[in-house]
């Protein structure tokens, strides 16, 4: 290896060392992933595995669920989730935005995405 090159390092380490947009994006993704891993600490309920924090945008927590049924209990517990996020992660969010995003189906290690619905001809 030539003297001007350094030893290989994980890309996460390199991005964290730079105060660039990529570094900030990586830190935010890691924060959201950590929150998702600990959601069961907030509520250990069957529906929680169908819910994930997708984004933190301003004063809003964006939550995706695999079905509308998983959002029913979440909507009633929204104040509790916001308090938990503020206490545990110092996230000053005051609103929750929910969206249904079905999980992609997996077949033999590949992601299966169903074809888009056919459009009916107009006229």
UniProtKB/TrEMBL annotation:
This is DUF721 domain-containing protein. Residues 100-123 are annotated as: Disordered.
């Amino acid at each position: 290896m030539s003297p001007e090159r350094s030893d290989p390092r994980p890309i996460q380490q390199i991005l964290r060392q730079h105060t660039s947009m990529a570094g900030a994006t990586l830190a935010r993704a890691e924060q959201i992933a950590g929150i998702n891993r600990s959601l069961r600490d907030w509520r250990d309920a069957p529906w929680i595995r169908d819910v994930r924090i997708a984004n933190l945008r301003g004063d809003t927590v964006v939550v995706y669920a695999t079905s509308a049924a998983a959002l029913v209990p979440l909507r009633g517990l929204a104040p509790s989730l916001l308090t938990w996020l503020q206490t545990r992660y110092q996230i000053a969010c005051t609103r929750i935005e929910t969206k249904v995003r079905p999980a992609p189906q997996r077949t033999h290690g590949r992601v299966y995405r169903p074809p888009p619905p056919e459009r009916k001809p107009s006229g």
